[in-house]
Structures are given as C-alpha cells and as structure tokens.
Amino acid sequence: MISVRQALTPARFLGRMTSIYRLLTYGVIPIAALRTTQRFSGTMDRPASHALD
Hints:
By secondary structure, this protein is mainly α. It has three helices and no strands. The protein has helices at residues 2-8, 14-27, 29-40.
C-alpha cells in the first residue's frame, strides 16, 4: 500500500502525505486506548460471574 501511495503522489507532496498518514494512523491510538479504558473500567473488580451483567 505504501508503494502505491508513493507512486500516485507527486514528489513534492511525499513528505506531507507521509506525515498525514502517520497522523491518522498513529494519532488515533491514544484516543482508542482512552475509550477502551473507559469502557472496561470497573470490570476487573467484580467477580467473574457478574462480569457480563
């Protein structure tokens, strides 16, 4: 996929395209981690029999 993106992008925009791609792919990791933490917080302190309530 990277080779296709580089082949289709004009040379003068390769740096910008790479930075945007990295921002979109790596920038959402902290957001996803925060949402996952919020969603599952409190499930570890309950007994397993009540985890699916």
